[in-house]
Amino acid sequence: MDKIEHKFIEVNGLKLHVAEAGGNGSKAVLLFCHGFPEIWYSWRYQMIAVAEAGYRALAPDYRGYGLSDPPPVFLIGKDFGSRVAYVFTLLHPDRVTGVITLGIPFLPTQRRQYHHYLPEGFYISRWQEPGRAEADFGRLDPKTVVRNIYILFSRTEIPIAEENQEIMDLVDSSTPLPSWFTQEDLANYGALYEKSGFQTALQVPYRSRNEEFNISEEKIDAPALLIMGEKDYLIKFPGIEDYIRNEQAKMFVPKLETVFISEGGHFVQEQFPDQVNDLILNFLNNHT
């Protein structure tokens, strides 16, 4: 990780942490947007790969996460970071050269209601409830919370708890980590979340889902790439698999290309970094 540098920037009175790799050459700047419970560290493999290919990589920790105006950019988002990337592109189309998302396609407003078709114990519904997840997570140290979520989200089934069961109780303490996620990785995540905790981290993706941005036309003109793991549990959200495989997203993102990684799960960029890096670099080379 010595190829990645760290700095802090002041934004609206807040000190934000940014990880950076690569120089200021002629190629594009790549802005990596993490998901939850991820942080800049989840992009470590991709940052080094694109930097070695001549690009400049920036990976901020969102406000309240971890240790926390470029020229036209590519946006790369994973999980709820995908929504961040697409909303920014809708609001500032002139500043975005292309969009790459992992795990989540562009979802127009009417497609974001899948949670209404899932049981009460659906993890997103639970985490939207103020205080519920805080109490659940608060029983455990940050390292254990991250461990449980990585195990849960690496499975092929949607995490759903019983009526009198909490989400953290879905993972047994004896369950091993995914083979591609090391104890060192877990220690790094745990140390980062020791500082920030999970309060803001829960509010940003789960309790801001209904926020509206007064966007009149949900249309992305920039080239876009969607990378999906075939075994990502998100594919089992109601209506999502048909939406992706039948390329319905092209109604909103006409220049979209979708690629599936056969054994990939929800954390595909950490599970199969070489494959994801190749896909990202090929896309960048084709659109710069």
Automatic annotation (TrEMBL):
Keyword Hydrolase in annotation: yes
Keyword DNA damage (UniProt): no
Keywords annotated in UniProt: Hydrolase
InterPro entries xrefs: AB_hydrolase_1 (IPR000073), AB_hydrolase_fold (IPR029058), Epox_hydrolase-like (IPR000639)
Gene3D superfamilies: alpha/beta hydrolase (3.40.50.1820)
Domain (AB hydrolase-1): residue spans on this chain: 29-72
Gene Ontology molecular-function annotations: hydrolase activity
Family the UniProt entry places it in: Belongs to the AB hydrolase superfamily. Epoxide hydrolase family.
Protein name as catalogued: AB hydrolase-1 domain-containing protein
Organism: Cinchona calisaya
